[in-house]
Design goal:
The chain is α/β, with parallel strands linked by helices. 38% of the residues lie in helices and 22% in strands. It binds magnesium ion (MG). Magnesium ion binds next to loops.
């Protein structure tokens, strides 16, 4: 039942906003969730923006948030690495800001193929060079290491269309070393489990809301939470029918979801 939901895990782009434009109904839905004692958390595979940058973006829409309201794929990766690779060296293929974020978490991050590396982690990287790709391939072929990546998205929306996202960068490496990374972002259930642990809400009270089937909806399905597809982004009703997993709810847009949550 939608009226019983209290923890709403929203995707951002294509779901509650598109670029700099907040969708009609989003602010009202967040206010309603607060009024019923619930919580909105934004989970995004976009690893180019920091959590602080999202707080500032939402402030421009007059929506007050703090950093704990945003779980990005890079943040979830930092938490995972901090737990699983304490005291170990991690080779990073990513932006300088991602390397900095990892180091701020106390992770021993290097960008060189050093002999004592325990794990390779790849993220979206708009500073990518062939040398970085070669170094990642060297570590993966000469060391016994784990291979992780922030998010499986193949393409990232851009002014003229799309640019390669983390998933596409990883495909180049996978095709070379014949090995796939484990992706930490959606659809891995870890990111939902993290939100449940941090907020204290139950799985039954949780709704995962998004516009993409293979990341947002599959993430909720993997985590055993109910899901809601909004048709303002990538997927159509036909796409949803064609998959072997299905969202529990489908609405045209966030405004229609607001009406349903209110029981109108
Ligand atoms: Mg989206």
């Amino acid at each position: 039942m939608l009226q019983e939901k209290r923890l709403f895990l929203f995707d951002i782009d294509g779901t509650v906003a598109l670029g700099d434009t907040l969708f009609d109904g989003s602010a009202e839905l967040f206010a309603h969730i607060r009024a019923i004692g619930g919580r909105s958390v934004f989970i995004t595979n976009n690893s180019t923006k920091s959590r602080r940058a999202y707080v500032e973006k939402f402030a421009k829409w007059n929506i007050e948030t703090d950093e704990s309201d945003f779980i990005t794929a890079s943040y979830a990766t930092c938490l995972h690495l901090k737990n699983a690779y304490a005291g170990k060296k991690v080779f990073v293929l990513g932006t300088r800001s991602f390397v900095r974020e990892l180091r701020e978490f106390g992770i021993d991050a290097t960008t060189r193929p050093e002999p004592d590396v325990a794990c390779v982690v790849a993220g979206f990287d708009d500073e990518l060079t062939y040398q970085k790709v070669m170094d990642a391939c060297e570590v993966l072929q000469t060391h016994s290491v784990d291979f992780l990546a922030t998010n499986p998205d193949l393409r990232c929306p851009y002014s003229f269309g799309f640019i390669p996202d983390c998933g596409a960068i990883c495909r180049m490496i996978s095709a070379t070393v014949d090995r796939e990374p484990m992706f930490i972002g959606k659809p891995d259930r870890r990111i939902v489990d993290l939100c449940l642990a941090e907020t204290g809400f139950s799985r039954a009270e949780t709704l995962v809301v998004g516009d993409r089937l293979y990341t947002d909806i599959l993430c909720g399905v993997n985590a055993g939470a109910e899901t809601c597809l909004l048709l303002t982004g990538e997927a159509t009703r036909e796409d949803a029918d064609a998959e072997d997993y299905h969202p529990d709810y489908i609405f045209e847009n966030v405004k229609k979801l607001l009406g349903a949550v209110k029981g109108e």
